[in-house]
Amino acid sequence: MKLSIQVNVLVVVLLAASKLAAAARPPDKGPPTDPGSEEPPDLGDMVKLYRDEDGVPILTPPDPDCDAESSGCCHQPLASDSIECDAADLEFDCVTEIDGTRVITNIDQYLCAVNPNCSPCLLEVDFGRSNVIRTSPDVFDSQMDEVVRNLQLSQCVPTLDAAGRPVYYYYLDEDEYSEYAIDSPLQNTAIFRQLNLDDSFNDLIPQAQDPALTAARAWGAAVDKGGEVDIDMIQYGLRVLGFPDLPSAVFPDDPICISVRSENMGSMENVEECFINFRSFRYNRYDNFDSLPLPAYIPEEGPESGTFEYLALFDEEEPSFTIEEGSISEQVFGTDTGTLENIEAFKTAADDTRAVINYMHNWPVPGDFVTHPLCVPSDDAVYDVYVSALQVPRNIVAGALDREFTVGASITSVVHIAEDVVLTLTATLDEGTVDEETFTVYTAEFDLDPNRLVADDTFQYTGFVPGYLTAGAANGDEIKWVATVEAEHDYDLGNNDETAYTVIKATGGGSGGHARTQSLAVDEAGPARKRQRKRKRQRQRKRNNNMKRNKKKLRRNQRNRNRNRRNNPQQ
I need a surface site. Which of 272, 326, 339, 356 has the fewest CB within 10 A? Predict the structure, then answer.
């Protein structure tokens, strides 16, 4: 099937210029801030460096020992070929060509500082949209949770698109579904980071892909589509994310370390810089793309691996387009790199992913004519059951019988029925005492069937607040409500409970003196009750802080266990 579309072509040329400035801090010294710091790292002083085949900076001669009193052993930035740089080079002798590479060599060999007059020659690393590497670990963790959740809850078996990005699926109705490739730079950077922390995420990728190749694809999907991945971007990015200070799960070989002279508090010191060891990584462009998309689904009548569809120019004189099918490798690249090794292989794998994404972005098949992958329903009964409603009175008069509560549970849109779901609502009367009694106000067992409601299936119950919860309560007492839901194959347990509070108002009236006496007693006891609540809040904060510390300790222990397994494979 071919589609011809008439178009008007408007070409807009955007011109931009940027001024590169010299860095005061050695540009590859380490992460501008600690990976766990709340402050985002500054990426503005990262410049391209003269590096060897391992991606490790080649330092200035002459002293190989690099002791604190010597000279040399400084980073050598690459030089641009701009007119401004050529002018600075003529006047200040900034650039030397080393093995065909322009390198800035006008460097103070004791302070390791580039001559300020040579700053027009510096090349700043352009992270583009991949500058999300500055994101805090907590945000990366939440984004990773979202990625895992989407793949786990995909209503069809997850696939890989022509670029190698994971694809998950959701039904729109009983006969139609929509697929979503993971395209977000933040989520792809989270995948890259997580694979280096723990490569078990790779188990969610179809047909057990090489974790290192999955990491390269994630990096390529995170950068600007129209940009280019280079070795400096990879090395700086790893350093900002905390590697190799943290051991890499996908590149477990010993890091490559060098000694570099660096300024610290006004004095020159030796600093050890370490870099991820990529020497074991291999990549072949044609082998990679001949296996994509996975599984093959184009052409529709007889799928062939390594084939994709794209928009192609049909008539130049009267601009029109047609849908073509062809080899990913031949159409996007046209040349074979052969088998590459080391960080050059990783860089090429990442940039090839970016190039295919960019091609599909520039030559997209119109939505109504796209060939969709065949949806293979997932056999795993995995779903997300969660508390969807908990509504209680904010305030209630003691002894009132006419105030309502609502509690409900729902299931994410999936094809599997959640059977024997248990929803429970409990209420605890906080009277400021140690022994607080908890009552089960409501419980129910039921099934959640998404076939009844394609988007979400919801169970909901509304009832009246029992009078025994508030009878005889003092003014200011609280009811703590907790709604919980349980199901056997529930994937996400983080949304299985909700908490709400109701404040009790004790009132008097008429000639009855008892309520008034009670009110006076409550007023006199007010300061003591406030102190009790303050101590309770302090205890809760302490428990929360302890939980956070325990979680960090567990993650640290897991990293240590992973490192020990890599170092002692026979244990």
Answer: 272
Choose among 3, 528, 8, 537: nearest CA to 318.
8
Chain position carrying tokens 């540009």: 27
Q: Could you report the per-residue pLDDT of 373-384, keeping only the tens digit for each?
A: 888 876 666 677
Burial of 318 (0-12, 13-18, 19+ CB in 10 A): exposed
d(CA 12, CA 549): 54
- Say yes or no: 285 and 400 in one domain: no
Q: Which of 293, 327, 306, 304 is nearest to 207 (CA)?
A: 293
Residues 357 and 398 in one domain: no
Helices (H), 377-468: none
Residues 352, 300 share a domain: yes
- Does some domain include residue 558? no
Report yes or no on 327 lying in a domain: yes
Q: Are residues 188 and 234 in the same domain?
A: yes
**What is the 3-state composition of the chain as percent helix, strand, coil, each rounded to the nearest 5?**
30, 25, 45
Q: Given phi > 0 = left and psi -120 to 50 = alpha, else beta, which region is 119?
A: alpha
Question: Which run of H or E residues covers position 387?
Answer: strand 385-391
**362 shares a domain with 400:** no
What single-letter DSSP state applies at residue 248? P
pLDDT tens per residue across span 450-474: 654 444 568 889 999 998 888 878 8
pTM of the entire structure? 0.68
User: Is 413 inside a domain boundary?
Assistant: yes
- Give the range among 40-49, 94-103, 264-273 with minimum mean pLDDT: 40-49
Residue where a domain terminates, one of 319, 342, 369: 369
- Residues 129-173: pLDDT tens digits? 888 888 899 999 999 988 988 888 787 889 999 999 999 987 766
Domain end (from 461, 487, 507): 507
User: C-alpha distances in angstroms, 393 versus 403, 410, 430, 440?
Assistant: 7, 22, 16, 17
- Asked if residue 533 is part of any domain, the answer here is no
Same domain, 430 and 477: yes
| d(C-alpha 358, C-alpha 366), whole Å | 16
Rounded CA-CA distance 323/388 in Å is 45
Instruction: Decide: 381 and 489 in contact? Cβ < 8 Å.
Output: yes
Parent domain of 428: 385-507
